[in-house]
Amino acid sequence: MIVNIGELVGIVPEGVLRKQGAEMSETGILKDAWIRIEDGLIKDFGPMSECPETDSDVLDADGGMVMPAFCDSHTHVVYAGSREGEFLDKINGLSYEEIAARGGGILNSSDLLHRTSEDDLFSQSMERVREVMAAGTGAIEIKSGYGLNPEDEMKMLRVIRRIRQSVPAVVRATFLGAHAVGRGYTHDGYVDTIAGMMPQAAELADFVDVFCDEGFFTPEDTGRILKAGAAFGLPAKIHANELAESGGVEVGVRYGALSVDHLERSGPAQIEALKGTPTMPTMLPGSSFFLGIPYAPAKDYIHAGLGIALASDYNPGSSPSGDMRFVMALGCIRMRLTPVQAFNAVTLNSAYAMGVAHLAGSITPGKIANLTVTQPGWNLTRLAYHYRTPYIRTVLLRGLPIHA
Ligand code: NIG
Ligand code: FE
Fold this sequence. Notes:
- By secondary structure, the protein is of the alpha/beta class.
- The chain has helices at about 85-90, 95-100, 105-115, 120-135, 150-165, 185-195, 200-205, 220-230, 250-255, 270-275, 285-290, 300-305, 325-335, 340-345, 350-355, 380-385, and strands at about 1-10, 30-40, 40-45, 60, 65-70, 70, 135-145, 170-180, 205-210, 235-240, 260, 280-285, 310, 370-375, 390-395, 400.
- Strands 1, 2, 3, 4, 5, 14, 15 and 16 form an 8-stranded mixed β-sheet that branches. An 8-stranded parallel β-sheet has the order 6-7-8-9-10-11-12-13.
- Fe (iii) ion binds near residues 74, 76, 239, 313 and 315.
């Protein structure tokens, strides 16, 4: 049980799995509260004036805020080594596309991954997962996509499964074989190979993803791969409209994608396509920040009545950070979201975008007790405003403090 909570933030009624339009500006907040955790789940909560007696463990929050842990619905944290060399190329003026065209970028990561043993890949990736859990992430989606041949893609998916078995955070796996054309393949031959991998990939993955963008995969390729994934029960989450108006949103919507992600180059046409669909538009301000490209027009989506999720895109090429508090701050500072809108985007809506909104992303009895307890005096606005000041007192995952 946690008592003397200054603000219990993110209270959402059972059954509400996402927030859209005006709902994005609302979240339940109870001041001066307690919350009870049982068997790793949220049991109940209420005001301190009606605090039940208990003989179990009590944590005195001392006026700190308690909020649901962040949900990060889009990451590539399983990768080998780093791309620091390309960081220098980027500083010297090369664009993401130029670096990729020189055989750097995703192919560079795939060469590194090929040379790295499965155990080493696991330990390198676990360091990042521990880092983000300590920073308050309680649910994380992880993509393959640096294998780029069947063997190495399966190696990545096995590493994600091992992470899932090793950490208290909620983990979901996405098969992103179509991240770039692997070395030694023709474009069409590669699309065939990835589509043909679905029977094995579906054993380990929850979702299928395609980098549907200029210079990578077309909407036609994407349709083929999503269809092949659907035949093996894999819902889609796609990379769309990062580098160009790629047609990715439209093909994602056509296949009932759970999310379409990036959206830096999107506008009224994509908003229209998304209205009335189950697809969650997901924006990745960390990659806009790192690449110096436009931020996705989040406000326009919300004004049109849509919900949005925010995720970190933690990866070695376009967003080498998984700090969801910084993502939330960028949402406020650069996308002009209010702190409550940004909060909903990094919790419930991001949980929805990775298919776990029934388990995580809000203060709701029955959900997993993945909670951040802050130092005294914090609130959502201050979290985004003083965006570098340490604020975490403890992170509880499945009701237990994590030891980073
Ligand atoms: O989401 N855009 C495609 N994939 C990643 C970048 C991957 C990389 O450069 O390694 C992204 O930004
Ligand atoms: Fe990505």
